[in-house]
Amino acid sequence: MRLVLVGPPGSGKGTQAERLVKHFGLTAIGTGAMFRDAIGRDTAMGRQVKPMMDQGLLVPDPIVNDVVAELFRSAVKPERFVLDGYPRTYSQAIAFDALRTQEHLPLTAVIDLDIADEEVVRRISGRRCCSNPACGACFHSAARPPKAPGTCDLCGTPLIVRDDDLEETIRRRLGEFHKNTDALLDHYRKLNLVRDIDATQTPDVIFANILKALGQ
Ligand code: AMP
Q1: Which residue among 52, 66, 88, 135 is best mutated to probe the pocket of ligand 1, counting the most ligand atoms within 8 A of its Cβ?
Q2: Is the CB of residue 107 less than 8 Å from the CB of residue 80?
Q3: How many other CB atoms sit within 10 Å of the CB of residue 199?
Q4: I need a labelling partner for 11 at 20 to 30 A (CA). Which of 60, 113, 140, 164 fits?
Q5: Is residue 11 within 8 Å of 113, Cβ to Cβ?
Q6: 85 lines ligand 1 (CB under 6 A)
Q7: How do residues 38-68 score in pLDDT, each as one tens digit?
Q8: Ligand 1 mean position to 58 CA, how many Å?
Q9: Structural domains for the chain
């Protein structure tokens, strides 16, 4: 099973990726998480991408493609995976297609999590994430509250509002998402890989619909 999850920020990609990982025993690959880790470790690449992420802008395609190619060519090359947040542009999809062909890794499906912008803004304004970059777990004041308010369930570190979860930032990210995603989905639709899923449902219903769309 090799999956790509496509959806705006706040569509529940991370939650569904976690469930798919558990259900099918997949490796989760999140380019946003990889960048946040690089920023936390203060690497040269982390310092390069931080200002773009803080402004809600996409990181340039060559940087993202290199990070992903490095992973797929490394000793820990994932064979069965769910990708959360990559590819995000048509040009990333083309680069990823070439990489997968070289590495003999055909895709099973592209899951398109469909949700209106206003619902995304409502959801994200309640989001609080772990300030420990090695953890990064996210909670929601209404939908997924942590056991102790303001504290990460997994590692006990204080929760914060990520810079890229501020409303102004989120509206810019939604703009970027729409600008880039149509061409990406068109490309995968031609390959008959896209499965459209209503992402306004509860996480349980969304997950059940994903399994159904995958014929499971
Ligand atoms: P995410 O955690 O997937 O919402 O990503 C957070 C931020 O990381 C995005 O707003 C972008 O700045 C950057 N980012 C993550 N993945 C990509 C990608 N595939 N292409 C460009 N920028 C990305």
Answers
A1: 88
A2: no
A3: 24
A4: 60
A5: yes
A6: yes
A7: 999 999 999 999 999 888 788 999 999 999 9
A8: 6
A9: 2-119+169-213 (3.40.50.300)
